[in-house]
Write a structure and sequence with these properties.
Elements lengths: L3 E6 L1 H5 L3 H10 L3 E8 L3 H7 L9 H8 L4 E7 L3 H9 L12 H5 L8 E3 L3 H11 L7
Antiparallel strand pairs: 1-3, 1-4, 2-3
Helix pairs in contact: 3-4
The structure holds adenosine-3',5'-cyclic-monophosphate (CMP).
Adenosine-3',5'-cyclic-monophosphate binds next to helix 4.
């Protein structure tokens, strides 16, 4: 099992001024930051990142939203990183997220849900490599 996961702080949380509080909660939960940057996805790049969802009805909305403003992308390290991070952020739909989770506290809606977290070790590696070169991951 890999000990890394990948996250993005999405444009809604950036616009609403939650980036600092979200990073604080992530670090206090025991994750080490392996790599981190603020950037902005073009519509094309957002489409490439979410290519797995291309056939979904929400793909257009998702890629428009994810390219609508700056984001923070980061690779995180901790034992059991993928599963523990998904617990920390809560359910995809903030209405169903547990009390105290990042999405419960900071998300706007199902589509604008404050943060992304990889769903598998394999995707964590693919997603981290999408944003960061090997030289940036340490
Ligand atoms: P994320 O974990 O980043 O990966 C895919 C994203 O698609 C997900 O978060 C949600 O923000 C978004 N998503 C999932 N279902 C819907 C939906 N029904 N409508 C809009 N966006 C959705």
């Amino acid at each position: 099992m890999s000990n890394r996961t990948f996250t993005m702080i999405k444009p809604d949380a950036m616009r609403n001024g939650h980036a600092g509080a979200i990073l604080d909660q992530i670090i206090k939960a025991g994750f080490r930051i392996v790599a981190l940057k603020q950037t902005k996805l073009s519509l094309d790049k957002a489409g490439e990142f979410y290519a797995v969802h291309k056939e979904r009805p929400f793909y257009g909305e998702l890629t428009q939203f994810m390219s609508s403003g700056v984001i923070i992308a980061a690779i995180l390290e901790k034992d059991n990183a993928v599963a523990d991070f998904r617990t920390l952020i809560g359910a995809t739909n903030p209405a169903q997220a547990e009390e105290g989770t990042i999405r419960k506290k900071f998300a706007t809606s199902l589509g604008e849900n404050a943060v992304h977290g990889s769903d598998s070790d394999e995707n964590a590696k693919i997603e981290g490599d999408f944003f960061f070169s090997g030289l940036e991951q340490f």
